[in-house]
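Protocol step 4 of 5: obtain the predicted structure for the target chain.
Materials: sequence only (see below). No template structures provided, no constraints applied. The aim of this step is simply to have a reference model before the mutagenesis design in step 5. Sequence pasted as it appears in the construct record:
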Amino acid sequence: MLEELRQVIAQLADDALGEQFIKTAFLYVSWGSSLTTAEAIVIFRSISHKTDQLVMSAAETWIQEGVDKATLKHIKGLLGLGMDAQTIATAFEMPQKTVEQYISLIQKEKKQQ
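Step 4 output (structure tokens):
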């Protein structure tokens, strides 16, 4: 039965809708089960080379989104303390242009509130 499930998941990886399903399934398994994210990655990676790629892509996206949200929150806090883009860029060791893009997002959020 597990072999049949493995085959079905491997087949799903062959089209775009199936790829999205696999990425979503990975995220649900990571969040909603007693498995750790590392254990879920090992399981999905063992199915096929394609599911390996899809799961790693989903994990990288998930991590990057978390990093982006945290960076946005920290820049917002530093702006609240009166720091300018150049000072924040120096503190974060990131290009000033990137910090200015985050500041632009923060300003858009304020306008929408």
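Step 4 remarks: The radius of gyration is 20 Å. The chain is about 85% helix and 0% strand.
Proceed to step 5.
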